[in-house]
Amino acid sequence: MSRQCRSVTLAILFLALAAWARAQTIRGVVVDQTGLPLPGATVQLLSGPTTVATITTGPDGSFVIDDMMVGDTIVASLEGFEQARVSRDQATRIVLVIARTSETTTVVASTIADASPTAALLGSTLTATNIARLPSTRMKARESLPLLPSVVRGPDGLMQIGGARAYETPIVLDGFNVTDPATGLSTLNLPFEAVRGIDALRDPMSVSYGRLIGGVVKMETTPGGDRFVKGVQGFIPRPRLSTPDFGRIESALPRAYVGGSLSAGRIRYFGAAEYDYERVTVPDVTSSRGSAVTDQSAVGFMRVDVQVSPRYTVTAEGFVFPNSTGLQGLSPRRDETATVDRSGVDVFGGVTHRFVQSQASVLTLQMGALTHHGRFLPNGQGTSTLTPDGWTGNWFATARRNSGRYNLQGSWEHINKVANQVHDVTIGGELAYRTLDGDITEGPVVVRDSLGRTMRTVEFGPGAQLNVHDVPMSAYVRDVWRLTQRLQIDGGVRIDGSSYAPAMPSARVGARYDVDSDARTVLKVGAGTFVGNIALMVPAFGSYPTRIDREYDPTTGAVIQENRFQPTTGALRFPNGTAATVGLEHQFMPGLDGQITATVRHTANVATLNVPPASGALTVASNGAGNYHDVQLSIRRLLGDDQQVFVSYVRAYAEGDLNDFAAMSQAVDSPIVLPNDRARLPTDARHRVLTWGTFNMPMRMVISPVVEWRSGFPYSTFDPRYSYMGAPNSRQFPAFVSADMIVYKTFTVKERSADIGVQVFNLTNHGNPRDVYSIAGSSRFGEFTNSVGPVVRGYMLLKW
Questions:
Q1: 515 Ramachandran zone, left/alpha/beta (phi>0; psi -120 to 50)
Q2: How confident is the model at residue 627 (pLDDT cuts 50, 70, 90)?
Q3: Which end of the chain is less enclosed by CB atoms within 10 A, N or C?
Q4: Assigned domain for 759 exists
Q5: Residue 56 binned pLDDT confidence (cut-offs 50, 70, 90)
């Protein structure tokens, strides 16, 4: 066994053994349905029917349960609110909702987070505390998503959730869709102080989630609290402590935040701002003073909550997010002249009105506006050249895109009793306007063999203007039905429409069944249909420049085939998926939970680029499909005081059409198009083991290791004309192994605290290549490259 494998194995055993460590004190908070803390609430610890201890929450709603107190159930209550009963391991945040004196109601649904009875217990949520204590390159909530077992960062750098591609899993910020309507993607990364929690929901059975295939990323921001808080973080630039670029400024991530309340708590505010600079070295390319990818962004976020009356709350929030990447695409197979400088600005503003009409009814209205402006500028000039060793000379496309989304959405939630059974019914809908305009200019591409002979060329017509608009709309009805004390049903129907596709209905149903009376074993099942979104780049493709594709005899230079392709948009329908999932959760003991889930999903009507064998229409149409299934096992041990251990294994399979248009157009357009084929998807990782933990050590130190092992992604090989050589995606990268760790110590001086330590990434120096020489004729054909070695980074977090 190699040294790296031994190290990883020992790390996994260490975490697994630590999972059985003695639990410690649990610290929790009681809040109302808007997320505000509730002081003076009564918290009881029960052991069976016996009350072990009674505690009152403090001014900030917090309470502490010492591990010496034996009990497995927590009951929280406060006059004017419904009583809440949770297991001990789920007591870190207890939500009390407004009570109703009438017998027709037992609970008012949460207006902050969807409490679907079919939502998975393990492996779908990260809190700000998790993010702060675990290794993180940028201390960003979204960047930490791969710590969840269903989230994998693909070879394109984008995160895939449960086998669904990035554009199929929108990002929802406090109920607002903040993805770019042109591509369905978003690079938004809020400072973690501004994020209360982030969920990666797979195949959510709640029909209130729409325009998705496979999943949704849900981010909830932080409201202001009773106390005034402020802080400044990351103000010391971070030098690189490993080669290449040793000693150079690797990153600067200064950020500041402020929060508090005014008018006796009726107005609460929270704001955060951050500037990010990161110099990303590229193995085999970046020398001591050589080229490197540079990422820069700044984000300003503000949220204000106004309690207009006891039953009426208004929340206004917004962000500005300018960002850019210099030398994007730089790698051993793509030199500096063939890269692009990408820049963009996202601006968002949203207002949420929430009316508590009665103790059983909540009306929510939201108005939002999002704009995105992006530019792609090549760093070279003239012809783009592709050889067996990679791209040189130039990048072929220059583009400008401006897109926007303006929407009005609302929901009305009402709870009543029918024949002693509780029904939580929600009726909602949305009306939006989406727009895309811009231009694209494309230059010539030449493909040469290892002897420098021309094998293929692609030429383009004059530049084109893009201008498309869309009016999407949707409506849904959902009923969460408590059939018995042990059985809950979550069912509903919705319909989605668009200017570019006929309206499509969908329906979902899920069930939760408590196998035993104390809900230690829970069975969750669900099945339904999902309707995705048509990115505006799809209908815009019909305006793209014409392309002429020629193949040559390398000996004589004569043209042996010439095809003229005219970009065209064909018949479009909403992409849709059909999925079924089943999961079993079990609490082995307080603080130790296990889960096994299985999912099967089929997608259809995927926008796919159809390349004809001869001259004609190069058509994007809704005729693609795909399949995905997985089995996931997870175990979590909560140790108290923010400590826990998480271990998971995922066995997955994903296949589909390779000419998925949305995936191909992420970099504006594809320089060479090939006939469509169906094969393993580029993000198909058949096996994945993920384990992480965070532990408190003596002398106020914290150590948090993360270990990941997964199968390598598939890849294709090509002949010198850049046509498939053999079956697509029939080869595979080596297995990926990464062991990361953070160690820090808390220092306190004059009531001010700071966490100071070090982070190490890929500490075993395992080779994890990101590129491969895949074109026949290269002297390095089949060789893997672009593997990042160990990276050491300082860590500082101030606690004001």
A1: alpha
A2: very high
A3: N
A4: yes
A5: confident
Looking at residue 22, its pLDDT comes to: 44
**pLDDT on residue 491:** 95
pLDDT at 1: 45
CATH number of domain containing 327? 2.40.170.20
Q: What is the pLDDT of residues 335-350, one digit of tens each?
A: 999 999 999 999 999 9
In percent, how much of the chain has pLDDT > 70? 90
Mean pLDDT for all residues in the chain: 87
Give the residue among 492, 499, 494, 496 at the shortest CA–CA distance from 473.
496
Q: Which of 128, 136, 138, 209 is nearest to 169 (CA)?
A: 209
Q: What is the pLDDT of residues 275-322, one digit of tens each?
A: 999 888 888 888 755 689 999 999 999 999 999 998 899 999 999 999
Q: End-to-end CA distance of the chain: give it in Å, rounded.
A: 47
Amino acid at 187: T
Q: Tell me the two tokens of residue 174.
A: 């406090």
Same domain assignment for residues 96 and 221: no
Query: Quick check: 166 and 214 in contact, CB under 8 A?
Result: no
Q: What's the domain count of the chain? A: 2
DSSP code of 214? S
Give the range of the structural domain holding residue 285, as residue numbers without chain letter.
215-799
Encode 747-778: b = buried (16+ Cβ within 10 Å), e = exposed.
eeeeeeebbebebbbbbbebebbbbbbbbbbb
Q: Encoding tokens for residue 668?
A: 């504006």
Radius of gyration from C-alpha coordinates of the chain: 27
Angle among Cα 178, 183, 185 to the nearest 5 degrees reads: 45
The answer as to whether 496 is a domain residue is yes
- 271-276 long-range contacts, Cβ below 8 Å, gap at least 24? 271/300, 271/301, 271/302, 271/303, 272/190, 272/191, 272/193, 272/194, 272/299, 272/300, 272/301, 273/191, 273/298, 273/299, 273/300, 273/301, 274/191, 274/234, 274/298, 274/299, 276/138, 276/189, 276/251, 276/252
Which of 257, 109, 130, 286 minimizes the C-alpha distance to 194? Answer: 257
Tokens of 618: 């190069």
Residue 251: pLDDT band with limits 50, 70, 90: confident
For residue 706, being part of any structural domain is answered with yes
pLDDT of residue 111: 33
Residue at 640 is within a domain: yes
- Residues 571 and 704 both lie in one domain: yes
Q: Which of 236-250, 269-283, 631-645, 722-736 has the lowest mean pLDDT?
A: 236-250
What is 354-386 written as a DSSP string?
A: EEEEETTEEEEEEEEEEEEEEEEEESS-S-EEE
Final residue in a domain of this structure, among 100, 123, 157: 100
Residue 83 backbone phi and psi in degrees, to 5: -70, 145
Examine the fold and report which residue of 78, 100, 122 is the final residue of a domain before the chain moves on. 100
CATH number, position 81? 2.60.40.1120
